[in-house]
Amino acid sequence: MDHFENIISTLLEAEGYWVRRSFKINVTKEEKRLIGKHSIPRPEIDLLAFKFSANEVLALEAKSFLDSFGVNFEQLQEKYEVPKGRYKLFTSENYRSIVISRLLSDLIECGMANANTKIILGLVAGKIYQNRSDSMREFMSDQNWFFWSPEDI
Questions:
Q1: What predicted TM-score, i.e. pTM, was given to this entire model?
Q2: What per-residue confidence (pLDDT) applies to 67?
Q3: Exposed e or buried b per residue across 24-60, where buried means at least 16 C-beta atoms within 10 angstroms of its C-beta
Q4: Is the distance from CB of 102 to CB of 27 less than 8 angstroms?
Q5: What pLDDT, on a 0 to 100 scale, did the predictor assign at position 150?
Q6: Which residues does the chain have with pLDDT short of 50?
Q7: Of 58, 62, 146, 143, which is closest to residue 107 (Cα–Cα)?
Q8: Distances in Å between the alpha carbon of 20 and those of 71, 80, 99, 139?
Q9: Nearest alpha carbon to residue 96 among 8, 27, 5, 38
Q10: Which residues fall within 8 angstroms of residue 41, CB to CB, at 6 or more apart?
Q11: H or E element, residue 19
């Protein structure tokens, strides 16, 4: 377990979420073909945060990057038809659509969600390159995505 993910889990639990770590998604061969990568490993969501009273699930990527330059805003804004890079769920609309749809199906199958459960993609960043938290917050908000900056944490 990553220490950063443990800290974020604790903060989310304090906000009323139930948290599950490292959730692997069961994409089918057909879905892999639609993604454009026939041999990708199962996508994994760092943290799933369930708020049952709102019937919502946050699908969060947790990037501490404390020993690097931080999350790069420009890389997060890139767009790809076939997913690549560190931020695949954010930069490839096709990949994101398939993975989030499959995530909901997997959660329903496990009894952890229902057809009306809303899944919200999000990013929790421990460090942001060039301190661009405000720009990143605006971008994430425009996409209706969840975001916690280092300042929020």
A1: 0.92
A2: 81
A3: ebebeeebeeebeeeeeeebebbbbbbbeeeebbbbb
A4: yes
A5: 93
A6: 1
A7: 58
A8: 23, 28, 17, 26
A9: 27
A10: none
A11: strand 18-24
